[in-house]
């Protein structure tokens, strides 16, 4: 009996690992030279003199993005791109699906926020259009960190695109009211997002253009697999991921 239980435990572990691998593969992208975007790194501001570290030799001003976004990045002291940013951002600006892996503190947040904001600006997305970009994060703490960077960057652009966050432990009615008014870039935890998708009237997500799943492995590992399956069934299939 103990042996059987151990075999079943090992089988469940292998099945979970297979599902995590499937998530990785489902959002992987191959570049023109046949190499997927793999391990990179990041740092929030300019590289210290004489020290490259996580940084590339590319500047944010080299990107094909609107001037207000370039100016906002400069105002926030984001000048030199990190490796993951230099690899991922140009692909996302072209509309590619991207799977990226990078160490903590290597600049992943900007790697997806910059192309997300450029997409909203380029399409002239407005609050009346609802949500154009969703960022799903495994925990409240990580969601707040992403929201803080997003707020800082959007406020610096002085553009009309709106941003917001929905997560457990926060007043749901206030979130629903904001969603009904239109949140263009939405940061969310899986459980609360699914709740709003299923129950919040006035939440416009039919125009979704880009979905970001931050730390997808962790989302599955902490038990949000079923929520994510439901979310992906509800959201428009034609989108960038």
Automatic annotation (TrEMBL):
It holds the Pfam family DEAD. Transmembrane segments: none annotated. Residues 89-241 form the Helicase ATP-binding domain. GO terms for cellular component: cytosol. PROSITE patterns: DEAD_ATP_HELICASE (PS00039), HELICASE_ATP_BIND_1 (PS51192), Q_MOTIF (PS51195). A motif (Q motif) lies at residues 58-86. Residues 58-86 form the DEAD-box RNA helicase Q domain. It comes from the Eukaryota. This is ATP-dependent RNA helicase ddx18. It comes from Perkinsus olseni (Perkinsus atlanticus). The gene is DDX18_3.
């Amino acid at each position: 009996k103990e042996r059987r239980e151990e075999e079943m435990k090992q089988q469940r572990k292998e099945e979970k690992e297979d599902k995590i691998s499937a998530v990785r593969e489902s959002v992987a992208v191959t570049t023109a030279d046949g190499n997927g975007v793999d391990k990179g790194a990041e740092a929030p501001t300019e590289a210290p003199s004489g020290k490259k570290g996580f940084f590339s030799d590319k500047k944010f001003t080299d990107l094909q993005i609107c001037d207000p976004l370039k100016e906002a990045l400069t105002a926030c002291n984001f000048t030199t791109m990190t490796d993951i940013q230099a690899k991922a951002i140009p692909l996302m600006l072209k509309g590619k699906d991207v799977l990226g892996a990078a160490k903590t503190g290597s600049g992943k947040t900007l790697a997806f926020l910059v192309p997300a904001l450029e997409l909203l600006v380029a399409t002239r997305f407005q609050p009346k259009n609802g949500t154009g970009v969703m960022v799903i994060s495994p925990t409240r703490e990580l969601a707040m960190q992403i929201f803080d960077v997003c707020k800082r960057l959007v406020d610096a652009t002085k553009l009309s695109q709106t941003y917001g966050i929905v997560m457990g432990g926060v007043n749901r009615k206030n979130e629903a009211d904001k969603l009904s008014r239109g949140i263009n870039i939405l940061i969310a935890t899986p459980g609360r997002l699914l709740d709003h998708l299923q129950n919040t009237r006035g939440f416009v997500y039919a125009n979704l253009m880009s979905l970001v799943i931050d730390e997808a492995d962790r989302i599955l590992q902490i038990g949000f697999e079923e929520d994510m399956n439901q979310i992906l069934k509800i959201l428009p299939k034609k989108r960038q991921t």
